[in-house]
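HUMAN: You are asked to prepare a plain-text protein record giving the amino acid sequence and the backbone structure tokens, both parts labelled.

ASSISTANT:
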Amino acid sequence: MYIYMTTGTYNFLNKIKEKHPGESMFLMQNIENALLLHESDQPSVFKTPRSFQVIDSVGALENKGIVVMNMIPVIEEERPLLEYRFNHIKSLFEKHNGFSAIRFLRPLKSDAYVILSLWQNEKSYVNWENSASYTIFKKEISTPAKPANLLIGSAYVTKYFIPEEE
């Protein structure tokens, strides 16, 4: 399974989504831009997507809620370590109220892995951020197991809201 992402204006991306009603697409936005996510085992319908292989998933993505993307730029040699660590921490998400789904994404043409989580609402995500599980998650993701640098650059988080369809 793969996830493809593209950004643009909400109206433009909504037209792309409407042209492909049989595809699993999720349109979301934040204050800066809109993002259209395409989950498929086929090539993307986007012209120039950011492409990721789904290496782990729990739950079903839905067209509602808040999407949180933890972007983690990792050096090539440390990719197996990050993937191993994720296997041991994914359960930290699953046990929280309001959690809907998670995708662990391996980049196909860049260095940044993505941990994409879907929450029922912002309150659910804020509760997760204030939990002991979140503290463990952040420590595991950002702390190298050895003196060599695991990360190429700074990890960062981007949040998007999926507007309710009318």
Q: What stands out?
A: The radius of gyration is 16 Å. The longest strand covers residues 50-58. The longest helix spans residues 79-89. Helices lie at 10-19, 79-89, 91-94, 122-129, 132-142.
